[in-house]
Amino acid sequence: MSVAGGTPVDIMNLMDADCPSKPFGGAEEFTFTPDSNGIVFSAADNGREEAWSTNHDLFLSPADGSTPPENLTSSNPAWDNQPVFSPDGKTLAYLAQKRPGYESDRFHIMLKSWPDGEEREIVPEWDRSPAILTWSSDGMYLYAVAMNKGNRSLFAIDSVDESVRTIVPVGNVEHIDSHGESVMFTLSTLDAPSDIFVIDRERLTKKSLTEVNKEHLKQVRMGSFEPFSFQGWNNETVHGYIIKPVDFDPEKKYPVALFIHGGPEDSFPNTFHYRWNPQTYAGRGYGVVMIDFHGSTGYGQTFTDSIQDDWGGKPLEDLKKGLEAAILMNPWMDEIRVSSLGGSFGGYMVNLINGKWPDRFLCLVCHDGNLDERFGYYDTDELWFGEWEYNGTPWDNPESYQRFNPIDYVGNWKTPTLVIHGGKDFRIAESQGMATFTALQKRGIPSKFLYFPDENHWVLRPSNSLRWHNTILDWLDQWNIN
Hints:
Layout: E1 30-32, E2 38-43, E3 57-62, E4 70-71, E5 80-85, E6 91-96, E7 108-113, E8 119-122, E9 130-135, E10 141-148, E11 151-158, E12 164-168, E13 172-179, E14 182-189, E15 192-200, E16 206-208, H1 214-217, E17 225-231, E18 237-243, E19 254-260, H2 278-282, E20 287-292, H3 301-305, H4 314-329, E21 333-343, H5 345-356, E22 363-367, H6 373-378, H7 383-389, H8 398-403, E23 417-422, H9 430-442, E24 447-452, H10 462-480
Parallel strand pairs: 19-20, 19-21, 21-22, 22-23, 23-24
Antiparallel strand pairs: 1-2, 2-3, 3-4, 5-6, 6-7, 7-8, 9-10, 10-11, 11-12, 13-14, 14-15, 15-16, 17-18, 18-20
C-alpha cells in the first residue's frame, strides 16, 4: 500500500502460499527492491506437497501486483530465505540450504548481482548456519548471527576477501541493524534478559544502550552459570551448561534437573528464555544441567547431521555421560535426587529414558513428546521431518522408526512422570500425550496430565505459563525434596 494511502495490493497474486511463512516467519522474509518498484519475498509455493517439502523459493513481484510473481531460485529444490539488498542496490544477499527435505541443513550465504547477474556462494567453508543476515550500512560487510558453541554469536564477513570475524561471541544475539562501523543488536544471557547494545566492529568496544529491566533485576536473585564439556559418544567433545541454585552454599547437597532440548537439531544456549528458563529452577533450589548432545546446532554441520537415523543412540549416550560428568565435577550435586525434563524431542527422549534408563531419575516431565514414532509420522504437520530423520516413510523403512521407538519399551517404565500437552499442537498431536498418560496410568506409575486446550507446541499465554511452571516445580519438589 502506498504511504500516501489507498487500497492494499496482494502482490502474491493469489499464490497458494504464505509470506511470512508459518509458524516462524517474519519481516526478514521480504524486502523492497532498491528502486521500490518491486518486492522480493520467500514462500513455499508447493501446493499439496507443502506438508512434506522444505522448498521455499525467492519470488520477485511488482509492488503494484500487476503481474504474477517471478521465481528467482527455481533451480534450488531446498530452502531459500532472508533476501536483503546491499546499500548500493547492486547485490542481493540471501540464505540457501542445499539438501531438500532437511530443515536443519546448513544455510549458505549467496550473493546475486542485481537484477540479472550471476549468483555465487561466499565463505563456503565457514561451518556455521546463519539465522539472521544483513549488510553493514557502508556495504563492506555482511553481518550474520549463528549458533556457535552454546552461544548465538554475531559475525562480520568481509564482502571482498570473505574473511569471517566473531565480533560478539558470548550470549544470544538477535535483531541486528547497522550504522557506519557500528552494529546495534539485542543480547541476552542465562542471567540477563534482552537489552539493546552497540558495538564498534573494528575496535570491538561494546556499550549498553538500554537497561529495560534494571529495577526489576534488583529484586531478583539469579543462579551463577558456567559452560562445561566432557567426552561423549565416541569420545567426541560435547558441551553444555551448569546453573547453580540461587544462594548457593558449596557445603550443601542440591537436587538436580537435567534439561533435554527439542529439535533435536537445536541447542540450549546462553540465553534468557521465557519457557525453558533454568533460572526458574535455580530459584527453587535446583542445580540445572543442560547438554548440547550430538545433533545440536552450533558445533559444525557434521555434528548436527550425526544423529540422522540414530535418535536414541548418540544423544542418549551423551546425556548419560554428560550427567555423570557434571555430577563428578560438582560435589554439591546430589547424585540421587535427579530429575529429567524436556519438550518435543526432549519429550520423546523422556519417554525413551523411562524405558531404556528407568532407574536413574526420581521423576520425569514429558512436554509435547511422541510416544510412538511410527504413528507420529502420520499425525504431524511436518512430514518431511520423519522422512529425513528416519531415511524414508514408515512403510519404506519401518525398522528405522522402530529402532528407538518409546512405545516398544513401555513394559520397562517405572519412573513417576508428569505429562503436558497442548490441544492445538499439530507438530506432536495431543493423542501422543494422552497415550503416554494412559500407559503410565495402566502400569500403575504415579503420573499427572496437564492439558492446555488453547496452546500449541509451546505454552505462550502468561496465565498458562504460570500454571506450567508451578505444576512442573511442584512435581519436582514432590519427588526430590525430603
